[in-house]
Amino acid sequence: MPAAPGGPRLLLRRLREAMAEPVSAQARLDRIVVLIAANVIAEVCSVYVLRDDNTLELFATEGLNRDAVHITRLRADEGLVGLIANQAEPLSLSDAQSHPNFSYRPETGEEIYHAFLGVPLLRAGNTLGVLVVQNKTYRVYSDEEIEALQTTAMVLSEMIASGELQALAPGAGSAARRPVSQRGVPLADGIGLGHVVLHEPRIIVKRLIAESVELEVERLEAAIEDVRSAIDELVERGDGIGSGESREVLETVRMFAHDKGWLRRMREAVQSGLTAEAAVERVQSDNRARMLRQSDPYLRDRLHDLDDLANRLLRRLVGQEAGNGIAAMPDNAILVARSMGPAALLDYERANLRGVVLEEGGPTSHIAIVARALGIPAVGEIANATALCDSGDAIIVDGAAGEIQVRPTPEIESAYAEQARLRARRQEQYRALRDVPALTRDKVKIGLNLNAGLLIDLSHLGETGAEGIGLFRTELQFMVAQRMPSAAEQQQLYEAVFAATGDLPVTIRTLDIGGDKILPYMPALEEENPALGWRAIRIGLDRPALLRVQLRALLKAAAGRPLKIMFPMVATVEEFTRARGIVEREKAHLRRHGYVLPSDCKLGVMVEVPSLLFQIDEIAREADFLSVGSNDLMQFLFAVDRDNRRVADRFDPLCGAALRAFRVIADRAEVVGCPVTVCGEIGGRPLETMALIGLGFRNFSMSPAAIGPVKAMVLSIEADEVRALIDTELAKATDGASLRPALASFAKARGIPV
What's an example Gene Ontology biological process for this entry (predicted)? Predict the structure, then answer.
């Protein structure tokens, strides 16, 4: 049976009139279902809204029993309506009663209907409800009718998202506004309560229904052409976008910009009566809904490319430039972003920030390092984060558990507020330990130092009572800059570091770039395994001018004071001796030109490549000190990508194999009298640090927030007792099992805070 004359355009015009009528929300919704039924020539039209308790409630109907409105509720997986809500795709059936998912509620009177067409009500890929039409006859709905219903569904979705319908069902909130709890991965410890600020605010489409379809087609075509040209120009220039997207990403976006199917769907949406921006929003919402439900990680990753392209089109259509909305930040801002670089985070006013939520970014990413340095709770790998919430939504970030709560209930908000108060009291207790020496109960001295990478980190020295900077990451200065820092700029930074630390020791690591640390102004190399590729000291030795500039700046900045330089990613003793040779040549150059040299210059190696475990005696004799980079050491030791959630947690750093590797380093360094520090993540976790003390390590470097908890643990243990425990448990751990349960049980029995 054909659709009524006029099709989707006529329906949208009538809907626009209905939306403008000064009537109640229920009266407006009742009028809308009548209009839809008449347009599609259906005997039934019903709207189901997904409630905050994950049930689908009948909000309006034409043709079914009106007494069932706000009475009938379906589970989110119940019947054909539930199937549409879950799959987020239209469903058209000539005989619904023969479908295995068919079920009906007697109070609705729908058992007499056979033909069925349902479409999801979508917004940003999230299902808000279902729109259904039905007929008694066994009929097939046309493509035009399906298109009309999908177009209408977008208008209804915006009506739901606005909150207009919430008052119709006491105690119920729509899916667009219901509380959401999501788990990701912890990036930076702490609890933040505040309101959402989208790092790249989603374009809100306010004009949905076209006045002139021809004009909207022209606007869409012009926007597509402009975006294509801009992307083509970027690809040809080879420039990065924003924080340095690679050429491969640009090529992918360009491919989508020329995809005929994507463009055809947008044109069809405009032809149905939507504005150009509403058409882009509708098609991308459909794409997002489908791709979020894919198990293939490649397809899910492509969602970001499509989102990027759709946002470019929307910004062009509404005349809005890309921006991060810094000026509109509230006092208690929680940043929500797909991804961010450290420079972007530093652009925000620190005093207003209460947390960070990312769709991407692992615990060892530089954004995580900067968040920890700033003391901002952060959570990463929150799927669909930017579509889960709107600007201004209440949100809670639990950086310890790796969880977020969007639009939390008063009970949850109260519980987290109390937890935040408890943490604040605990921090006060840690601050009381600031000047207490880090001695075990059997008087073993443990050195506690800070990891740093920005000048802002250095303020934590006085707050924590740390003994110095055990690791200063110089690459962060390069990553937050818009161009390569000059020799003078580098020297100025290092002078500021030495001025801020006074007489406290500072270990400065040379530039560790490559792998996942890409400078925005340097072309990214295409490598099969970037973590195993051209990075860190390998770049420095292959491009000695880069290393020489940095070393000269360090030597000048440290004039007359001790200097400790550490080289990252060293795999052989020969690499270290080559780097040491460059230092000696730079010292000779400065000496010839009358510069004051450091009073003492010690050179060290970061032990993070497993090959050094088999050269540990030699490297300990050659180097002045060693630092264990446990993050990379564990990654390489177990062949596990630490940013891959499928395997990152497969091996515990407290398992027998890992602890035996750590023991080799501690024992051999002690034999030759070479100082050794642990500066990776596990050095800042009380239970892991306790195990490392038992292995013989006596110096650690960690984030500022870890100093207090680790010191409290140190003050509660006897080093000899822990060593005996480790010896016993390692002797038994022949199957690769973790010592974590035994260590946790030991700590609990003795009241050791871990």
Answer: phosphoenolpyruvate-dependent sugar phosphotransferase system
